[in-house]
Amino acid sequence: MIGQSLTDLWYGFSVALQPHNLMWSFFGVLIGNLIGVLPGMGALSAIAMLLPLTYTMHAVPAILMLAGIFYGSQYGGAIGAILLNMPSHPPHAVTCLDGYPMTKMGKGGTALGITMISSFFAASFGITVMVFASPLLVEVAFKFGPTEIFSIMLLGLLAGATMARGSPLKGVAMTVVGLLIGVVGTDVNSGALRFTFGLTELSDKVELVALALGLFGVADFLRSVNRIHFVGNEAKVRLRDMRPSMAELKQAFFPMVRGTLVGTLFGAMPGTGPTITTFIAYALERRISKTPERFGQGALEGVAAPEAASHSKTQVDFIPTMSIGIPGDAVMALILGALLIQGIQPGPQLISEHADLFWGLIASFWVGNVLLVILNVPLIGVWVKVLQVPYRFMFPCALFFIAIGVYSTNNSLFEVNEVLVFGIAGAIFLALDFPVAPILLGYVLGPLVEENFRRALLLSRGDLTVFFQKPISLGFMTVCIVLILLQVFFALRASLRKRKNKGLDLVLPMAAGTPVDNE
Amino acid sequence: MRRLVTTSNRDYYGGALMTAIGLGAIIQGRHYPIGTLSRMGPGFFPVALGAILTFTGLAIVVSARFAARQEEQKQLPAEWRGWFCIGLSIIAFVVLGKYGGLIPATFAVVFISALADRQNTILSAAVLALATVAICIVVFWWALQMNFALFGWG
């Protein structure tokens, strides 16, 4: 089987390296990187904007270009997250947590360097896994029915909610708010319009880009205007600064490996988006770290692990998208749409029927990632110019990019209003010390959770115990319960300690952040 | 002036807000058919979520009641000028984008939001807005061929 895979991969390289295909791949990476760096422009708007261009192209270069835009903008987005605290693609919300504090400390260059190394390492690993495990993982993924999908998504949501900084209860509340936002729109089963309040624009769901940019862009401006004075003038990132020291490399190496493994594991599971993956990678690092209090204050591990996870996940994520047609997230859904426009039906037969496409894509991932590294070494100076802009000039421009970026996803001004609404809501939640990141998680997974929950119970004739009867599902459910019990245990222990210390020591070490904190 | 939101009462407000959203979801969700467990209607999931959110909100309030009093954190006063200008700038973008075209909308969003910062003067905000308009024309209208008229009525 390995020999067969290697032969196929060799064939894939011959497809990816054809000058015509290579050119489109390069174009995609370049444009993706450029748009990703622009504040407020993520992979979603980049792909959405360039999607019409592919309608007239042959399927292989079209998909290669879209994939190039995807990981190009993903890397570009990391730059924006680290230098500007602006996650244009939801998974980068996690990178902001530690990447931006590093920039504030003047170590933005190191963070970028580590990001580059991590993403390249993780992507290479993810591609390798994809090559050798593709046939195998397709088989495992086939065993996933709605019951299993619901259980694993429940686990993902619970994990995402309880490990956000601060109170787990607030995290759960925010996740549920996100799930409710995901309900808005047309119900796929009955066609009923839910929570649209008479607005026809809402029948097509809340726009993901608007939600993300509202919660992380506008809400942040509302919280930080006149409060932070950008440190950018002191932060100079040159090529030399990007080369991390030996000690920093050592510090980042194992988080990078762990992040890669987390990303690979989750990539193989349908329906689990990259956001949850980066969150889990981050939480894992914080959990096993000897100094968890450094996280959120500029810990190198907090940049390396999620970035590695998101890149290995990106690669492996193509497996469920291509082989069963379940996209991991909205970006994958867009790529799925592009495949359908090209007349290619995703499914297990895709690998054999469109071998040039599948293996060409895999090979182009590696080629594209090499291009990305080569591109970013000379271009980093350009990105750094962004740093020199004071905040008072930066945020109005960023606001414009947000407005135009959101407009571009659907060519509609209604979504721009959504940005404002979610921005204000996000700022209120932040003021009340709620973490806003779980909202996104809930929103992305919401429709999938509902559909699979309904389907699972339809199949079991309304028997709720079905989630504990199937072995794979039982495993996920057990982990869920353990997670909840652990949280209850931690909460009880903490309150017992507080009681004991009452009157003696009222000053408890609080993990609260600064007012401009993003989470 | 007494502060509206303090560290000690923040969780009461937060829990109450969550309970309110949860109840709202239940009330609105009851308008859709609920169905049964084996044949769920479109209302089942929202109502269930609303119930979970209501209980979580109550739990937040209860845990705030029992939590040891925390030391008051230093909090910065609300920045009403910032909220007003940023909110207005996005509304201006939508309105002018619809009735004026890309150039007025771009100018308005940058100009108005720049005034949110106390260090920006009208002149610096105008210069910044004009520069953004120039970038916008080159990048979005010329290079990316975005479907948005530079000037337009209606």
Architecture overview:
The complex is a heterodimer of chains A (519) and B (154). Chain A has 519 residues and is mainly alpha-helical. Chain A contains 21 helices and 2 strands. A two-stranded antiparallel sheet of chain A has the order 1-2. In chain A, helix 3 crosses helix 17, helix 4 packs across helix 5 (92-104) and helix 6 (108-142) runs parallel beside helix 11. The longest helix of chain A is centred in the first third of the chain and has 35 residues, at 108-142. The model of chain A is unreliable at 230-234 and 503-519 (pLDDT under 50). By secondary structure, chain B is mainly α. Chain B folds into 2 domains: 7-70; 80-143, no CATH class. In chain B, 64% of the residues lie in helices and 0% in strands. In chain B, helix 1 (10-29) runs antiparallel to helix 2 (44-66) and helix 3 (80-99) packs antiparallel against helix 4 (102-114). The two termini of chain B are 46 Å apart. The model of chain B has no long low-confidence stretch (mean pLDDT 83). Classes of the chains: A mainly alpha (519), B mainly alpha (154). At the A-B interface, helix 8, helix 9, helix 17, helix 18 and helix 19 of A face helix 1, helix 2, helix 3, helix 4 and helix 5 of B.
Brief account:
The complex is a heterodimer of chains A (519) and B (154). With 519 residues, chain A is mainly alpha-helical. Chain A is built from 21 helices and 2 strands.
